[in-house]
Design goal:
The structure is a single chain. The protein is an all-beta fold and about 190 residues long. The chain is built from no helices and 14 strands. The chain has a four-stranded antiparallel beta sheet with strand order 7-6-5-8, with no helix packed on it. A four-stranded antiparallel beta sheet has the order 9-12-13-14, with no helix packed on it. A hairpin with a 2-residue loop joins strand 12 and strand 13. It starts with a strand and ends with a strand.
Length: about 190
C-alpha cells in the first residue's frame, strides 16, 4: 500500500497524504459475495432524525468478508485486491479452486500489507508465518504481529481489522495467549 505525497500548492494541500489506489481492481465486486446495504439517513422508525450528520453519499453494497477462515488446509490464490467502501482496509479475493461439484470457491479476506496478486494463502492449525496465512493464536510464536483476531474460538475476527492496525503476541500464561493491542492494552 503506497502513499501519495502532494506538493504544498495551497494551504489545504500542505501535508496531504493519500493512499495510492492504482494497483486495485477497477471492476465491480463478485456479485455472489455482496449483498444490499440499507441506509437510514440517521432516522429512526418514526422518521425523526436521531443522529445528525448522517445522509447522502454513494450507494454501497456490503462485501461478505470471511472473518472466520474456516476452510482449513486448503491453499488459495489471491486473484485481486479490491477497494471496500465499508472499511478502511482493502480486501483480497481468494480463489480456493473447485469443490466436488466443480463450482469455484471464492472468498473475500482482509488484505494485509505486502499481500500481492498471485500469492498463496492458507488457513490451518500450524502454517508458515507470512502475510495472508491464518492459524490458531496458540500455535504462533511469541512476538508475531497479526490481525483479524478472534475473541472466542470460531466466532470470527473482531480485533485489529482496520487498516494499519495489528496486535502482537507477547506471551502465554494459564493456557491462554497474551496479546498487546494498538492502544498498549494487554489482554488474554
Amino acid at each position: 500500500m503506497a502513499l501519495k505525497h502532494y506538493n504544498p500548492t495551497s494551504p489545504a494541500r500542505r501535508g496531504l497524504i493519500l493512499v495510492d489506489r492504482a494497483g486495485l481492481h477497477k471492476g465491480a465486486p463478485v456479485k455472489a459475495l455482496t449483498e444490499g446495504k440499507r441506509k437510514t439517513g440517521g432516522r429512526n422508525n418514526k422518521g425523526h432524525v436521531t443522529s445528525r450528520g448522517i445522509g447522502g453519499g454513494h450507494k454501497q453494497r456490503y462485501r461478505l468478508i470471511d472473518f472466520k477462515r474456516c476452510l482449513w488446509d486448503v491453499e488459495g490464490t489471491v486473484e485481486r485486491i479490491e477497494y471496500d467502501p465499508n472499511r478502511t482496509a482493502f480486501i483480497a479475493l481468494v480463489n480456493y479452486g473447485a469443490d466436488e461439484a466443480g463450482k469455484e470457491r471464492l472468498a473475500y479476506i482482509i488484505a494485509p500489507q505486502r499481500l500481492a496478486v498471485g500469492d498463496k494463502v492458507i488457513a490451518g492449525k500450524k502454517t508458515d508465518v507470512k502475510p495472508g496465512n491464518a492459524m490458531e493464536l496458540g500455535q504462533m510464536p511469541v512476538g508475531t504481529i497479526c490481525h483479524n483476531v478472534e475473541m472466542k474460538p470460531g466466532k470470527g475476527g473482531q480485533l485489529a481489522r482496520s487498516a494499519g492496525t495489528y496486535v502482537q503476541i507477547v506471551g502465554r500464561d494459564k493456557g491462554m495467549v497474551m496479546i498487546r493491542l494498538n492502544s498498549g492494552e494487554q489482554r488474554y
